[in-house]
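Query form — protein Flavin reductase like domain-containing protein

QUESTION: What is the three-dimensional structure of this chain?
INPUT:
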Amino acid sequence: MQPYPVDPGELREAMGRWPSGVTVVTTADPATGRPWGFTATSFTSLSMRPPLVLVCLDLGAECRPAFQRAAGFAVHILRSGQRGTAERFATRGADKFADGVGVRRGLYDVPLLDGAAATLECRLTERLPGGDHLILIGAVQRVTPGPDEPLLYHRRAFVELPAPALG
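ANSWER: The structure tokens for Flavin reductase like domain-containing protein are given below.
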């Protein structure tokens, strides 16, 4: 007998039918200043008043301890053409901030990636347990929109939207 009423593989397959945006979430370890980040599709706005967002981090992620200690984080909504960035930050053990990733420091000394469709800099307000994930809630302090279309994730594949027709 399985321990859950729904098979996790079936749930994953069903959720794959729901297209979502792709984000990279970054922070800096407050003790060392080392940058950390991960790719997330479990991201959403939580409230407009006050401006809050939430993102889910796998409990087994190498970066989890840094996010548990951090004062803030940034959510980078990736744009079409940033599939390589999404893959890099999704790869366990990869040097995610290696050559080729443009980075500057933002609020809370958080690393900000160049070229995102939008970046949200957040003060980390709550960490909540959520099954096999840690739910991070952030109060949005600064938003930097970009002009590009977002990168999507659908049926376990990255999908790029065509540029809108100018008319």
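ADDITIONAL NOTE: The domain at 15-156 is CATH 2.30.110.10 (Pnp Oxidase; Chain A).
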